[in-house]
Amino acid sequence: MLEDELGEPLFLRVGRQVRIDPRAESLVQLGQRVFQDVRETVGAITDRTGGWRDATPVWGMTVCLYVFPPH
């Protein structure tokens, strides 16, 4: 879906193998930074208030739904 939206291939498909396109590597790095920021933010909140640790993965994903712009 992302390839369709961008109008650019993000993966190199050769036979049965799939490799990430070098242009898509920047998207992977950005995603990793965003998820790290969410983890750190949730960690800071739970360290101060306590008791949210069990809900962290769900809460983190919910935040991402509102942080990323709609397609």
Plain-language structure description:
There is one protein chain. With 71 residues, this protein is mainly alpha-helical. Helix content is 59%, strand content 11%. Strands 1-2 form a two-stranded antiparallel sheet. β1 and β2 form a beta hairpin. α2 crosses α3 (56-67). It is elongated. The mean pLDDT is 76.
List the helices and strands and how they pair.
Elements: H1 2-6, E1 11-14, E2 17-20, H2 25-49, H3 56-67
Antiparallel strand pairs: 1-2
Short note summarizing the structure:
The protein is mainly α and about 70 residues long.
Major sheet characteristics: 2 strands, antiparallel
Elements, N to C (H/E): HEEHH
**Number of continuous helical runs:** 3
Rg, rounded, reads 16 Å
What's the overall average pLDDT, rounded?
76
Helix content: 55-70%
Could you give the count of β-strands? 2
- Uncertain regions: pLDDT < 50 for 5+ in a row? none
Query: Helix/strand-derived class?
Result: mainly alpha
How big a fraction of the residues is strand?
5-15%
Q: Estimate the global geometry from the Cα principal axes.
A: elongated
User: Strand order across the biggest sheet?
Assistant: 1-2
Spatial separation of the terminal alpha carbons:
10 Å
Which keywords apply here?
71 residues, mainly alpha, 3 helices, 2 strands
